[in-house]
Amino acid sequence: EVQLVESGGGLVQPGGSLRLSCAASGFTFSTSAMSWVRQAPGKGLEWVSNIYRSNTYYADSVKDRFTISTDNAKNTLYLQMNSLKSEDTAVYYCNTESPIRVYWGQGTQVTVSS
């Protein structure tokens, strides 16, 4: 059974940093593409970043501020978020896809506020 469990969210001041984690199990993590997606209050889902093997991709809104990475020994996906802005406030989800469906974690809340 595929499981994705996010952690690391919280309240941070503008300009601050957080590192999100996504613990994965039930599939071959090291060869799977992984993504971070967020949903701000009252808005739709927004793709943030993804990683496949050593290739990384970012939305323009987070480029040069966020860094996606993996630790294959720990089956864990990370999102290092620096220079946080109020508009980064959202629930952050990790996901991965199989040929037949997309798997999601439960999400972790990030609130950027002074």
Q: Note the beta-strand portion.
A: over 45%
Number of strands: 11
Terminus-to-terminus distance: 40 Å
Class from helix and strand fractions? mainly beta
Order of helices and strands: EEEEEEEEEEE
Mean pLDDT: 97
Q: Could you list the spans in which at least 5 consecutive residues all have pLDDT below 50?
A: none
Helix content: under 10%
Rg is 13 Å
**Largest sheet geometry:** 7 strands, mixed
Number of helices: 0
Silhouette = globular
Structure report:
With 114 residues, the chain is an all-beta fold. The termini are far apart. 31% of the residues are buried. It has strands at residues 3-7, 10-12, 18-25, 34-39, 45-52, 55-58, 66-71, 76-81, 90-97, 102-104, 108-112. Strand 4 and strand 5 form a beta hairpin. Strands 2, 4, 5, 6, 9, 10 and 11 form a 7-stranded mixed sheet that branches. It has a 4-stranded antiparallel sheet with strand order 1-3-8-7, with no helix packed on it. The protein contains no helices and 11 strands.
